[in-house]
Design a protein that fits this description.
The chain has 19 helices and no strands. The protein has about 475 residues and is mainly alpha-helical. It folds into two domains: about 190 residues, Growth Hormone, Chain: A; about 220 residues, Up-down Bundle (Growth Hormone, Chain: A). Helix 8 runs antiparallel to helix 9, helix 8 runs antiparallel to helix 15 and helix 13 runs antiparallel to helix 14. The relative contact order is 0.14.
Length: about 475
């Protein structure tokens, strides 16, 4: 073996890498509209998966697979709790990854075939009478690989453009793609039920085939047409170091708090939506249509919050979306029961805020990563977006707690509109008053948020200057 040739090859490879990482971060070119669209494409099937996982798969497991309700509850609640634990860990592992194919691209590509296999297993492969253990393992594995893809995609999004508004553009495109995917799932479910008179199992299968078709296609678009900026591997952090990093970063906490409050509000309203619209507003057959209108309006509303963020700053845009959501939620109190012609337009107006919160909390967190990098010398996008996903899921998981509160008032779903006045009053209070308080608290928590466009530009300039002065060694800390 020619040892000298091997050493020369290794030396040339290291020199190319040294030159590559020593380039100013500002040399990362602006992405074209096509590249942003291609990059955002995987968000459509990834976020679309959340709707069947929350709304359609639990009844499918109970009705079609014959699992007892306690097992269905344990499987899906356990999977969400499992997610809460592993998301930051997955983000940390991805931050430390180094390969010739890129860090985030590698994880996105490697996770795709595994998620496809698990999608097939969960949506098609589990037979009636399957054991709760096997069904639970399949769902847990699906959530694990799903988290890997989501964190890789969001981490890549946070690093793709280094500027304040550039990140808003990328994450705005992701939000639009995700809402297109969610609307597509609702349309498929509606077509199967109303046009073909299919069962819940038929709807699950139709959504499964759609996800299996879209996932590899959209991932290919992102991998084929978008380059990943090189970042050096990050140091390993123990659990204690990770917690210290997070709880001492005041900016991160300023973003995580409104994200948690928003998640709880959405979890409460999402869990009670059908109850309120069917039992209080008396829309027995139109409730699903109203939900679809709400999501479609959310898609149309993304450009509004996008523009506000560019004009006044991300945190101001987020505050606007939260206040708007509280006002439109309060408007539900004044709707006449059964009047679809009046309720549908208000649902369209209320839905405009739906995409703003998710878009802008992610955009704010991408800027927080800059602050962390300047202080520590490490670029830990995966860790921070993993924690952001954790708080969102924690908030949404808190939604089912409202069922226990309703149960204490004597609320019985089978009675529908015949429930007692006290039970329906509590349902109204939880569906309207609780989210309003949470939205306003989230907006108030962003008062005097310091990391605006000017501050982020200063952070970016300092990071770039250190990157060049260190000869590409981004791991050197500020103190050195």
């Amino acid at each position: 073996m020619d040892t000298g040739a091997t050493q020369r090859t290794s030396s040339r490879r290291q020199e190319r890498r040294r030159k590559r990482v020593a380039e100013p971060l500002s040399s990362e070119r602006k992405l074209s509209t096509w590249e942003i669209a291609a990059f955002a494409a995987p968000a459509a099937p990834l976020l679309a998966l959340t709707l069947p996982a929350i709304i359609f798969l639990p009844p499918h497991f109970a009705e079609h697979l014959g699992l007892p309700l306690w097992a269905v509850s344990a499987i899906f609640l356990g999977a969400r709790m499992f997610d809460l634990l592993v998301d930051p860990w997955i983000g940390g592992v991805q931050d430390r990854t180094e390969s010739r194919y890129g860090r985030r691209r590698l994880w996105l590509a490697a996770s795709t075939p595994f998620l496809m296999i698990l999608l097939w297993l969960v949506f098609f492969g589990l037979p009636p009478g399957v054991s709760p253990l096997l069904a639970g393992l399949a769902v847990f594995a699906m959530y694990l690989v799903y988290a890997s893809m989501m964190i890789a995609h969001l981490g890549w999004a946070g690093e793709l453009q280094p500027t304040y508004h550039g990140r808003t553009n990328v994450l705005g495109a992701i939000q639009i793609a995700s809402m297109i995917g969610q609307v597509l799932m609702l349309v498929i479910a509606g077509v199967v039920a109303q046009v073909f008179r299919g069962s819940n199992a038929d709807a699950v299968h139709a959504m499964g085939w759609t996800l299996l078709a879209l996932l590899p296609l959209t991932t290919f678009l992102a991998l084929r047409f978008v380059r990943e900026p090189y970042r050096p591997p990050q140091p390993h952090l123990s659990l204690g170091q990770t917690l210290t990093t997070l709880f001492t970063n005041k900016l991160a906490l300023r973003v995580l708090l409104p994200d948690l409050l928003l998640g709880v509000a959405q979890g409460v309203s999402g869990g009670l939506f059908l109850f309120y619209f069917q039992f209080v507003l008396r829309f027995q057959n139109e409730a699903q249509t109203l939900l679809a209108i709400y999501f479609i309006a959310g898609l149309a509303g993304v450009p509004i919050w996008w523009w506000l963020a560019r004009r006044y700053g991300k945190h101001v845009g987020l505050q606007g979306a939260l206040v708007f959501a509280s006002v439109t939620t309060a408007g539900l109190l004044f709707l006449p029961p059964g009047n679809f012609g009046l309720v549908a337009p208000l649902m369209a107006v209320a839905g405009l805020a739906q995409g703003g919160g998710i878009l802008l909390t992610r955009a704010l967190m991408a800027d927080v990563v800059d602050d962390d990098e300047l202080r520590t010398g490490a670029r830990r996008s995966g860790l921070y977006f993993g924690v952001l996903m954790t708080t969102s899921k924690l908030g949404i998981a808190a939604g089912p707690i409202t069922y226990a509160v309703l149960d204490m008032t004597g609320f019985v779903p089978a009675l529908g509109a015949e429930n007692s006045a006290a039970a329906l009053g509590m349902l109204t209070f939880l569906f309207i008053a609780a989210p309003i308080v949470l939205y306003l608290a989230a907006a108030l928590s962003l008062y005097r948020y310091p990391l605006d466009e000017t501050a982020q530009a200063a952070l970016h300039a300092a990071i770039e200057a250190r990157h060049v002065s260190n000869g590409g060694d981004a791991m050197r800390s500020v103190a050195e």
